[in-house]
Amino acid sequence: VKHSGLPTPPALAHLEDRLEQLRTEGLLRHRAVPLEAGALSFCSNDYLGLASEPLAVPASGPSGAGASRLVCGERVEHRKLELALANWLETEDALLFSSGYAANFGTVAALASADDRIVSDALNHASLIDGCRLSRAEVAVVPHLDLGAVAEALARPCAGRLWVVTESYFGMDADAPDLKALRALCDRFGAALVVDEAHALGVLGPEGRGLCAEAGVQPDVLIGTLGKSFGHSGAFVAGSQALTTWLWNRARPFVFSTGVSPAVAHSATAALGRARAEPWRRARVRANAEALRTLLGEAGFAIPGFGHIVPVLAGTPERAVQWASELTRQGLPLHPIRPPTVPRGTSRLRLTVTALHSEADLSRLVGALRRVVPA
Ligand SMILES: Cc1ncc(COP(=O)(O)O)c(C=O)c1O
After folding, report:
1. 28-41 pLDDT, tens per residue?
2. CA distance to 42, 212, 328, 364, per residue, from 35 (Å)
């Protein structure tokens, strides 16, 4: 744990005990070894293969915003990207955030207040959970994908407003809520629907516009990240102008943080253009997902969910760590997914496919899994 040989400051000495505790529980995480450019990987969220493209920066473009966008950090690159996203998703407007974490956390906390009730899926991402906590609203955590529990939580009397918060394609479980039914429940009870499409946008739905688009559902708040399919960093919230104006005023991670780098915004706009103009990328992800799931099925693995996220359940953290290190030793760097990222007892490998994987890559992965993971 200690690298320099210097003693830990006394006020932080307790951290050593806590780290030891994590180690004995199999939950200690180490700094990662940097991935070499072009290395084969089955655990990135770079689904379309755009992260390995060079940054598209205009020769004279500014590198930094220099301030919060409310102060003097506003640049044309920000607005161009927001308008391109709103145009693509057919919403009135969009607002950029520095990450999906900040977008989820800041948006939920800015929208819900103390008298409200948020109905939140039990497997929602940490950023949504943290936004619920910061909002001070009552949080009704409902079992994963359980529409009956959502209906019950919405039906109970509430002094304030009602919110339903969910991912569209769950990033660890590769499954999806019935968005049409959730929209109908929200309409029936006057609740707002907040959907995080982090893992769907770019790949799933018509032209990669996500699972809400596929279901023909208009969420009140749609959140997406630029760090996954679009291969950059940053994120956005898309919806009405009232929504983006409110967030401009009240979303704390937006208000109190330096604007996204204009260079990154410019390059992300180009990446969005490529995602739209190069449909072969999402077609390849989908085909690779089908192929990997079929190969794993033939090899006797029971893989839950659908699509480009492929969970291989291990149960205990120790087992997930052992599988991941063995596969990494065999040249397939994988990371064990453990609590608190997933619930206890559901540690796993989370495989992902991208547009850049070949058939040979998939066969190599399945061959290695057969050797490492007991039937
Ligand atoms: C469902 C979901 N939402 C949001 C995020 C956060 O996005 P970002 O990586 O842009 O902070 C993640 C990524 O880990 C995620 O899985």
Report:
1. 998 888 888 888 99
2. 12, 34, 11, 19
